[in-house]
Amino acid sequence: MLVRNKNIGNLKAGYLFPEIAKRRRDFLAKHPEAKIISLGIGNTTEPITPHIDAGLVEGARRLATKEGYTGYGDEQGMTALRERIAQVFYNSLKGCRTISADEVFISDGAKCDIGRLQLLFGSSVPVAVQDPSYPVYVDGSVLIGAAGPWNGTGYEGISYLPCNAENNYFPDLAKLPKNSLVYFCSPNNPTGAVATKDQLTALVKAVQESGSILIFDAAYAEYIRSPELPKSIFQIPGAETCAIEVNSFSKPIGFTGVRLGWTIVPKTLVYDGGESVNADWNRICTTVFNGASNIAQYGGLAALDPEGLKEMQQLTDYYLENARLIRSTLQNLGISCVGGDNAPYIWAQFPGRTSWDVFEKILETCWVVTTPGSGFGPAGESFIRFSAFGHREDIEEACQRLSRLTL
Ligand code: PGU
Fold first, then answer.
1. Pocket of ligand 1 (CB under 6 A)
2. What is the mean pLDDT of residues 176-198?
């Protein structure tokens, strides 16, 4: 018989969000009367806005015409979309290094690209992550064999860089391992913290000095409202020689189900031997990816029109208002929390309690699903993440229920 890939066996448990969905199902089986509200997975809830929807519809309609039909497209994405992303999200940003269209690779989402990016570095690269962090960085590293097995407190081969109230949710950069792959997410999932220009400048310097490469996840960049906070790592000088940026249309325009993202790999980024990372990424994309859906890409193009950008702003404002409501409810209860002002997540601390214990308590007494902080890494223990994605009336109802929470 064929033996199992031992890397899969090294994963300690199921992926976090299906595990939460299972607990919700188990609770509902016992309490079928419960009207559960989810502030758990960061899944968008509001309809796609009219101008962007028209772009999708037009993309689909084209396919039904002889002139407009297209089959496989370029694996890297439509040139017009690559150009537009470079222009709108980078070249019009203050202090951003100029990004050219051939440094933009269109994808079916940031999660998928984070998984594929690991093919660039293989199984022997040391990995550093913010702790807590989006689970795909660590679980993906285990799957490719760069990390694992679990040693009781973390996976072998992963440097967990704690981010907590003591360090203002920014890690101690002296702990970066040499020649490693460093994952960094800002605005952060799960803490909602956003790194300042000075912090990102220090990060880029530390990554350069340690001979490492940074994978910067900017999936929530469009939630930044404070103008002095960088939206892209390429606003930091030097990032073009040490960083890759992954990004997505999921959270700014509700394309979580449509699936569209992009990755920036600068042509100035090289390995130790001088080989081009951009050329290798092109090779990987052309080999194990066949391009994002052409319909989705027309939707993406519409999102980058002035009208689409206005809709993007309105949609992200809506979720940020949800975040404000949740945060003030928690603060009124005396719960210490961060995030929610430039990010759609609130990170709340419950000292002396385990995350799963608090998760169960909130589910049982408020019928609200959350995400246990320990699912994002060892430093997440005793925290709960509240997601601001939800219909306003559900958020208001959840806040009312949470305001009666006693622990
Ligand atoms: N990057 C970060 C930091 C994310 O939080 C998420 C989604 C993604 C990437 C995925 O982006 P796509 O472009 O849609 O692939 N995080 C959500 C959803 C859970 C999941 O497993 O992706 C969350 O609740 O954390």
1. 17, 41-42, 109-112, 134, 185, 189, 217, 219, 248, 250, 256, 261
2. 98
